[in-house]
Automatic annotation (TrEMBL):
All copies of domain Maestro/Maestro-like HEAT-repeats, residue ranges: 984-1249
Domain Maestro-like HEAT-repeats: 536-784
Stated name of the protein: Maestro heat-like repeat family member 5
Zinc listed as a keyword: no
């Protein structure tokens, strides 16, 4: 080394001088050249010693690098690298000397020296010419050297050459070019160096190398004609042994080098030959496919036509067709061809990327090929990823081209269909790849190109993308699935990147079409997920929604003059509900969304923003800045929001959710407010109780403030009914019903009409709505009046011919629904007063309704054939509505205090007359007769309402009115409302009625005793002959005479039979025990009619007959003939009324519906309590009945005596003789074998009691 070099050497830092001196041996050999020692001068002795010492230390460390101790080796290498940072030239010179002095060192030792040398050269600011040449040659020699370390040894030498390139690119390039062009296929290390040079971080160095590489490729095209070179190239490209996922850089670059050579080739034939041969290689490995595609793309940069022709030719080749499922009926077994279509997809992408400015005319053709291979190939992850990569590459190339924004893609729709299919096939239980993110990014790129997407395809794309992202499991579940994947990812980061891509896509769609309709479309698809039952899905959707609103609000994309944001009401409603979501993060973002919605509203309406909303200068475009937490979704823990993320207090979402929503509501138009309410109503049916409760609160709040101006109230009412059954929270249910009550103030007619639509049949939830509708007293009367109006709308369904279809008009159903509703509301507390006040109207309306129902069930004229063609109601439904119409009339009588009238019909089974159109008139007459006999207080009011009904246009109303009117002629109250002349005029007018039944009834009324008082004495004179007729031999004649006498008593009206009543009673009672059923029934019916006509009049003799008839009537309650039982019940009840017994309603109920020993005991109690004077008569009658041939009479008499004996044993003992006692014992012995268990038990107990009493009397 010369003195100039020695003096120019940088001074070594002082710390290296004293580096570990104690640890070094005392004898150190200073291995320096003689020339260097001779050049030293005395004044430089100290400096020389320091440098020599450091060189010796470095030399020693280089020698120690041969150590087998890994810790010591690591320590030594670290110290050498640190020394190189301070004095690289010293280390370079020492390495040179060490290699020169030790030529026989091991390959592993030299490998470590090469690694250190790379670091030293890289740390050097400059490299002298001597060292440059020496170490370049050293690297070249060792790059191709074969050792036991194989490639890593050569790579270490290659890294030295790469490090030298930084200091002297000309030298390295010249050496590489020389070795590449020596007509021998380049060694792998040369390609490795070239790959490293191509991937340098220094952009200037990389560009300089790319220029040199192009020149090398141009000079290398001569080898394309060499068969040996071509063969070696093919072997290098297809050599096995490399890992499929980690391809060595030299092989990857070899595809680039090959592509650059083909790019430089001018001969089309040679180019096509090499490309075809390349495509014939294996397509099994992913890096192989990528390499083939890269080579093809590079060749296309100058030979697009030739490359296109080769790709088309390969696509039509037989192996390629076999790999497509559309062309092969059997699965291709050769792995090398299985993914050939994926190679083609990548190749088309690379062709587009490398063609640069020439690509636009080819875009549609490339896209069509890509779509074809994607659809025709067997689906797997390889195909999916290749398609995504190729499409992204193509779109990037399009965006780089001039005129891209004016170019219209004809294949946009087909490409979107592929993306939709791809997103739909993504696994929904894991997130292990970037496929979702890449597909969404492709859509974002498409948004910037023409033409825009059509609405239908855009909707399907949004559904697929949102479902693919939002429906992913909770983060902990995703983490679990990722742990089992081959390439684990950071799930949180991957999901965040995916959602950011989704946000960018939505924003791009708005940019492409900045209209309110577009925003409506996007939010409509997000809205579906805001209503999800899963907390993590709602949270994700809300974050996306807020991000979109923030973007639109900040950039003012919506023009107020362009049109209203129609979905704003629906969105406001959903935000209002989610502001109370159980998930804390969703709550926060919902309130944030309200904050962004308010300025959007005010901007849309062109008004000032009265409440400031946070508007940052650069709004966050993705979830990154807003996702404060990684929520676990449905877990119970509520995430707390960091205090620093809370906006200032003046912002709208500091107002509190309830107040903020009220501020928003005040800004909504009527249509938007309607949408808001519909959203709230829809959430009444939510499976989440808290959402239901919040929805009910919002519903009530809006109705309280804006209920009078609302529209579509009828539809809202029907929707509330649909959700009412799912509301489990009592408070929420009451709030919903309270909202109905408030709506009734302004919208009662609409609600009544709407509620009628779901009142056939009337379920419990519908009844709650009806009760809420009339919860306030004034409204209950109005609602009742509206129902009466609907009840009176009674159209008959059109009668069609047998071949004609049944008309769809079902307007008559409203009348049936009103009938059902009125029936139920009679029992409702809210309508009790209104029903009582409207009794006359309700009575006439329901009575007419019964006739209408019977008309609906009349058979058609076309007969059975027509019935088969018409969609007529089933017999069960017809029976049900007939029953409902009668039950409504029954309940009106029973719930309004007219149970006496009800009892008359119930005890005589008169309601059966209302089930047939033929007996309808008789039923109405008997009902009106009962009202007259019971002196009903509503007769006057009914007469006032009858007069308009007699003039009605409806025939059925006139019929019902005249049937009632002719019975009311017997009531003294008639003359308080009408004079005789007015009554005669009404009947005379009825004679001209078109309906024959009305005319007949009017004619009968004209013969009433009211207009002919002289008929009273005439009829009374006919009574004795009728009584004589009772003793005729003919059963039919006797029954007829008795019925005729009953009619005479009815015609006599309130005056009755007078003194002849006693004779009628005695004769009628004599037939109570007749052997003939019909005569017994007729006699009891006559007796009951007689008692009814003499009510409230004291006739001592008749009263005795009534008292003496009570026990026989009681005993015949167990008669075998149903007709006798019915007449016995009615006669017994009328006698009890005449005798003014208390508990008459209980007595009626017992007679009408109760059976068994308890009912018998109650009737015995009533008889014995209120007829104590006739005790002996009743007991003697019972004793005489023990001789009856009828088992039921005998049994019932024995039970009566048993009850009496239990309570009055001494009286019974006094009145019975030995014969009666023995008969009584025998009777009870027989009753112990009675089929009824209760009677058997009672008989056994009584026998024991009798024996005990008998024993006491003997004592």
């Amino acid at each position: 080394m010369s003195s100039q070099e020695s003096s120019g050497r940088p001074r070594v830092p002082e710390d290296y001088v004293c580096w570990d001196r104690r640890s070094q041996p005392t004898t150190i050999l200073l291995c320096k050249s003689k020339s260097s020692q001779a050049a030293l001068v005395p004044q430089e002795h100290q400096k020389f010693m320091e440098e020599a010492y450091n060189a010796a230390i470095c030399y020693k460390m280089l020698r120690d690098m041969n150590s087998s101790d890994p810790l010591h080796l690591k320590y030594v290498i670290k110290k050498i690298k640190k020394m190189a940072q301070g004095c690289s030239s010293l280390v370079l010179e020492t390495i040179h000397d060490y290699l020169k002095d030790n030529p026989e060192i091991s390959n592993r030792h030299k490998f470590r020296l090469l690694q250190v040398l790379e670091t030293v050269i890289g740390a050097s600011d400059s490299l002298g010419e001597i060292w440059e040449k020496y170490y370049t040659q050293l690297a070249l020699e060792n790059m191709t050297k074969s050792t036991e370390l194989e490639d890593i040894y050569q790579d270490a030498a290659s890294h030295v050459l790469v490090a030298i390139f930084r200091h002297s690119w000309q030298t390295v390039t010249q050496q590489l070019e020389t070795h590449l062009l020596n007509s021998v296929f380049p060694h792998r290390s040369l390609i490795y160096v070239m790959s490293k040079l191509s991937s340098q971080e220094d952009e200037d160095q990389r560009k300089r190398w790319e220029e040199q590489l192009a020149q090398i490729a141009l000079k290398s095209r001569q080898f394309l004609n060499s068969d040996m070179w071509f063969k070696e190239m093919q072997e290098a490209l297809t050599r096995p042994g490399w890992a499929p996922q980690e391809q060595p850089p030299e092989k990857a670059f070899l595809f680039t080098y090959y592509g650059l050579i083909l790019q430089a080739e001018e001969d089309s034939t040679i180019l096509r030959t090499h490309l075809w041969a390349l495509l014939q290689t294996s397509h099994q490995l992913p890096k192989q496919r990528e390499g083939i595609a890269l080579t093809t793309g590079l060749a296309a940069a100058r030979h697009l036509d030739d490359v296109w022709a080769i790709l088309d030719q390969f696509g039509q080749s037989t192996p390629m067709k076999w790999s497509l499922h559309n062309f092969s009926s059997k699965k291709l077994e050769e792995p090398q061809w299985k993914w050939a279509s994926s190679t083609l997809l990548l190749a088309y992408g690379q062709v587009a990327a490398k063609a640069r400015t020439h690509i636009l005319p080819w875009v549609d053709n490339i896209l069509s090929r890509m779509v074809f291979y994607f659809r025709s190939s067997t689906w797997d992850d390889v195909l999916k990823q290749s398609f995504l990569t190729a499409t992204s590459t193509l779109l990037e190339a399009i965006h780089r081209s001039e005129g891209a924004h004016s170019y219209e893609l004809s294949q946009t729709g087909e490409l979107l269909e592929c993306l939709i299919a791809l997103m739909e096939k993504e696994p929904q239980d894991s997130l292990c790849t970037h496929s979702r993110q890449e597909a969404i990014n492709i859509v974002t790129s498409l948004c910037e190109l023409r033409p825009p997407m059509d609405t239908d395809r855009k909707s399907r794309l949004l559904r697929a993308c949102l479902h693919s992202v939002f429906a992913l499991p909770q983060p902990d579940t995703l983490e679990t699935h990722t742990c089992h994947s081959r390439e684990p990812h950071n799930v949180q980061a991957l999901y965040r990147q995916t959602t950011e891509a989704l946000d960018r896509m939505l924003q791009s769609l708005v940019k492409q079409n900045p209209t309110s309709d577009e925003l409506d479309l996007l939010l409509s698809h997000i809205y579906v997920w805001l209503t999800s039952e899963k907390a993590h899905e709602r949270q994700r959707a809300m974050q996306t929604c807020v991000c979109l609103l923030e973007f639109v609000n900040h950039n003012h994309y919506l023009d107020p003059e362009e049109g209203n944001f129609t979905r704003i009401g629906k969105l406001a409603g959903m935000l209002g509900i989610l502001c109370q979501d159980p998930d804390g993060t969703t709550q926060y973002h919902s309130l944030e969304g309200v904050g962004h919605l308010y300025p959007l509203l005010t901007h849309q309406k062109g008004g000032p923003e009265q409440v400031e909303c946070q508007s940052p200068k650069e709004p966050p475009q993705t979830h990154t800045e807003r996702a404060a937490v990684w929520s676990t979704g449905d877990q119970g823990d509520t995430t707390l929001i960091a205090q620093e993320t809370v906006p200032p207090k003046e912002h709208i979402f500091q107002l509190g959710s309830n107040h903020a929503i009220k501020v928003i509501i005040r800004q909504l138009s009527l249509a938007e407010l309607t949408d808001f309410l519909w959203t709230v109503i829809d959430n009444l049916g939510s499976a989440r109780e808290l959402h239901t409760q919040v929805a009910a609160q919002l519903l009530l709040s809006v109705v309280q403030e804006h209920g009078t101006k609302l529209e579509t109230v009828a539809e809202m009412g029907q929707a509330i009914h649909q959700h009412l059954c799912t509301i489990g929270n009592p408070t929420a249910r009451e709030q919903a019903l309270q909202a109905i009550t408030l709506l009734a103030h302004s919208h009662a007619p609409e609600l009544v009409a709407a509620f009628l639509d779901f009142s056939i049949p009337l379920d419990s939830h519908a009844l709650r709505l009806w009760r809420a509708l009339g919860a306030e007293e004034p409204m209950s009367s109005l609602v009742l009046g509206m129902l009466l109006n609907w009840l009176r709308v009674r159209p008959l369904p059109p009668r069609t011919s047998g071949s004609s279809p049944q008309p769809k008009d079902k307007s008559y159903l409203r009348s049936l629904a009103a009938m059902n509703t009125l029936h139920e509301l009679q029992f409702a507390r809210e309508f009790k007063k209104a029903v009582c006040e409207a009794y006359p109207e309700l009575f006439l309306a329901l009575l007419t309704q019964v006739h209408y129902i019977l008309e609906l069930d009349l058979p058609t004229e076309a007969g059975a054939e027509q019935q088969a063609h018409e969609a007529t109601p089933s017999p069960q439904s017809s029976m049900l509505r007939r029953s409902t119409s009668v039950e409504a009339l029954k309940s009106l009588l029973s719930t309004t205090g007219h149970w006496h009238d009800f009892a008359h019909l119930e005890l005589q089974d008169t309601w059966e007359y209302f089930t047939s159109i033929q007996t309808y008139a008789q039923g109405v007459g008997l009902l009106a007769r009962a009202m007259v006999q019971n002196q009903c207080k509503q007769i006057k009011a009914l007469l006032s309402h009858l007069l308009p009904s007699l003039q009605s246009q409806e025939e059925r109303e006139r019929k019902a009115a005249i049937f009632i009117f002719i019975e009311f002629l017997y009531s003294p109250a008639l003359l308080e409302v009408l004079s005789r002349q007015q009554a005669l005029a009404i009947l005379a007018q009825g004679l001209e009625d078109p309906n024959p039944k009305v005319r007949v009834s009017s004619l009968q009324g004209l013969g009433n005793i009211l207009f002919h008082p002289e008929k009273r004495s005439l009829l009374r004179r006919q009574i004795p002959p009728f009584l004589a007729g009772f003793f005729q031999n003919s059963e039919a004649m006797v029954v007829g005479v008795m019925k005729t006498l009953s009619d005479v008593l009815h015609c006599l009206g309130a005056q009755g039979a007078g003194a002849l009543s006693l004779s009628v009673a005695i004769n009628a009672r004599s037939f109570f025990d007749d052997e003939r059923d019909k005569i017994r029934a007729a006699a009891m019916a006559l007796f009951g009619d007689l008692v009814a006509t003499v009510a409230n009049r004291e006739l001592r003799g008749l009263r005795t007959q009534v008292c003496q008839s009570m026990l026989p009537l009681l005993l015949h309650l167990k008669d075998q003939c149903p007709a006798v039982v019915a007449q016995a019940k009615f006669a017994f009840y009328r006698c009890a009324v005449l005798l003014c017994w208390p508990l008459q309603h209980t007595l009626f109920c017992t007679l009408a519906w109760e059976h068994g020993l308890s009912a018998r005991h109650f009737l015995w109690t009533c008889l014995m309590t209120h007829s104590q004077e006739e005790f002996g008569i009743h007991l003697s009658q019972a004793l005489s009945c023990l001789h009856s041939r009828h088992h039921h009479i005998k049994t019932w008499a024995a039970l009566f005596i048993g009850y009496t004996t239990c309570y009055h044993p001494e009286a019974v003992a006094q009145m019975t003789n030995d014969i009666d006692g023995k008969l009584l014992f025998c009777t009870f012995e027989d009753l112990r074998k009675d089929p009824e268990p209760g009677i058997r038990e009672f008989a056994t107990r009584l026998l024991s009691f009798f024996r005990e009493v008998s024993t006491r009397s003997e004592d």
